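ok, trying the design again with the full structure, not the truncated one.
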């Protein structure tokens, strides 16, 4: 009888302990402060000489990474930022970066993925779109370039499975000698990038369908027009562009800011059209660290 009572007491104690531990872990999870992560990629110079080099894509990436780390910017800790430019932006380094995001991001975390460089398709029939890595090969993108399919699957994993918030920013429709130049491959990539995979995602692309993304020395001593004004807008200039200045930058505000700056500047400097596209919930906070 005594042994039976002792067993019941032990079981009761273990049950109470397990419930207590569960409550503590649940409370800790609820109190967890969301983190921010950034994977920033910029490729101006390509290993294959047949792929046209760019001038300022790596600068655009470096400037965005600096903004991510700045206390006056996104204020992301340095160990939560990966910057890959030129030689460091190899295919496998980019894939490792995406895996790093999937392995670390958790519910309510903010994930910024930024890419500046070439985007292209090598076949109009197959319709496979790619963002070109440093070691991509002309007319042979498969296995050495970031496929949009992998990018979309990563965004799906982060937003749907991990419940993180993803901001995908691409400046990828530059002119140049590319495999898809005869059938406008770079702009077909732009069209494919303009598709949200979930409601927990924001996508910002440098130009609309049928347009190119321009860079010039006139913007920030050598920058892409889109990335230059995106940085200025996120740093605070977009706040209140729609009439409400509250110390935070929303998706709607950055959309209005870019639409007011990029087309006019590109038209004046390049005599061309470039209209950025912003997709996502307009009242979502793009920069949650600029707040009063």
């Amino acid at each position: 009888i005594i042994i039976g009572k002792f067993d019941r007491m032990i079981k009761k104690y273990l049950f109470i302990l397990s419930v207590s531990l569960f409550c503590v872990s649940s409370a800790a999870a609820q109190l967890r402060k969301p983190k921010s992560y950034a994977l920033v990629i910029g490729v101006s110079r390509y290993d294959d000489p047949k792929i046209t080099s760019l001038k300022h894509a790596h600068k655009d990436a470096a400037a965005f990474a600096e903004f991510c780390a700045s206390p006056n910017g996104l204020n992301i800790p340095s160990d939560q930022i990966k910057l890959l430019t030129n030689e460091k932006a190899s295919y496998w380094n980019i894939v490792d970066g995406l895996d790093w995001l999937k392995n670390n991001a958790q519910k309510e975390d903010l994930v910024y993925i930024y890419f500046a460089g070439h985007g292209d398709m090598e076949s109009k029939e197959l319709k496979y779109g790619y963002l070109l890595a440093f070691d991509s090969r002309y007319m042979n993108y498969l296995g050495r370039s970031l496929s949009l399919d992998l990018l979309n699957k990563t965004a799906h994993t982060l937003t749907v499975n991990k419940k993180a918030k993803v901001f995908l920013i691409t400046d990828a429709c530059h002119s140049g000698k590319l495999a898809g130049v005869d059938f406008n491959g770079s702009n077909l990539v732009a069209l494919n990038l303009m598709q949200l995979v979930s409601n927990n995602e924001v996508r910002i692309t440098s130009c609309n369908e049928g347009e190119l993304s321009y860079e010039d020395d006139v913007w920030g001593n050598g920058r892409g027009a889109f990335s230059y004004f995106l940085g200025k807008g996120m740093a605070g200039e977009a706040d209140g562009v729609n009439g409400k200045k509250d110390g935070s930058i929303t998706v709607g505000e950055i959309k209005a800011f870019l639409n007011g700056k990029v087309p006019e500047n590109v038209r004046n400097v390049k005599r061309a059209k470039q209209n950025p596209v912003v997709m996502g919930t307009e009242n979502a906070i793009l920069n949650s660290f600029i707040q009063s």
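Keeping the full-length input from now on. The first strand starts at residue 36 and ends at 42.
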